[in-house]
Amino acid sequence: MPEQVEVRLPDDVRLHVEVTGPADAGVTVVLLHGWTLDGRSWHRQLAALRDAVAEPVRVVSYDARGHGQSSCMALPTATLAQLGDDLAVVLDAVAPTGRIVLVGHSMGGMTIMEYAHRHPGHFAARTAGLVFVSTTAEGHTHTAYGLSPRIARLIRLAETTGAGVLARCGSWRPPHALLRALRPSIRWMLFGDRCDPADIRLVTSAVARASLRSIGGFRASIGAQHRLDTLAKLTHLPAAALVGDRDRLTPPPCAESIAAALPATDLTVCPGAGHMLMMERPEAVNAALVGVLRQVLTSARGRLTPAG
């Protein structure tokens, strides 16, 4: 069973963190979930990591501010910049030594980029590998919801207007009855050709635990972020990027631009999959994650082996 830890941030927001593996492990994998989700998104990766490598590895997942079991926050801190700062605090608190492999889905991937941008020294000293799952470095540049440009513009306008209203609703959470009614829309937006009923229930449950302030408040920051220049400075790191070809939120051009900025990136496009690749295509995500992790472990062993 994972150890449950509370990390208190400088502004008194409390983060719910779950940790498995030894504290003295040489490598820690940090899993960062997407917007309106929580750490449970990674349950199929947590199971795979336990059996994937022979060496002890520490695994950390946590609920971002305003999400899951973490506490709500002041509206001005509902930004990707703040999430990047939060990641630095979490690393210092629960994984203060050893190398780090950062794995981010959607907003989680954008959090990694913001951490690299805002804390370059901290990032460089610890980070040894990257995995980007269904994410973007270009805000909503490529987001067309799988629709015509005109319809996409109308949906984006409605979405951003609604987000502004929700952001002012504070720590209230979405009513369960409303989310049940919206389940077909959630399924259409987030999943591709196939969707396990248990997965849509988990996603709906996660949205129900996100505060309305976080659901609405992060939208502007997510739409505006551009960090390809930050990624271009990280070409020395082993990395992987994955995307579904039916992803309506971060379609393939998002992953392709990440791979272009990081030319050594292993790019995987999953046919028929949508935005929730960790659930829809766990084998592909697990293979990419384990591939990067093994590169990091091999590199670490090489540094420890005396020259002969």
Automatic annotation (TrEMBL):
<dbReference type="GO" id="GO:0016787">
    <property type="term" value="F:hydrolase activity"/>
</dbReference>
<dbReference type="GO" id="GO:0004601">
    <property type="term" value="F:peroxidase activity"/>
</dbReference>
<dbReference type="InterPro" id="IPR029058">
    <property type="entry name" value="AB_hydrolase_fold"/>
</dbReference>
<dbReference type="Pfam" id="PF12697">
    <property type="entry name" value="Abhydrolase_6"/>
</dbReference>
<dbReference type="InterPro" id="IPR000639">
    <property type="entry name" value="Epox_hydrolase-like"/>
</dbReference>
<protein>
    <submittedName>
        <fullName>Alpha/beta hydrolase</fullName>
    </submittedName>
</protein>
<keyword id="KW-0560">Oxidoreductase</keyword>
<feature type="domain" description="AB hydrolase-1">
    <location>
        <begin position="29"/>
        <end position="288"/>
    </location>
</feature>
<dbReference type="InterPro" id="IPR050471">
    <property type="entry name" value="AB_hydrolase"/>
</dbReference>
<keyword id="KW-0378">Hydrolase</keyword>
<dbReference type="InterPro" id="IPR000073">
    <property type="entry name" value="AB_hydrolase_1"/>
</dbReference>
<keyword id="KW-0575">Peroxidase</keyword>
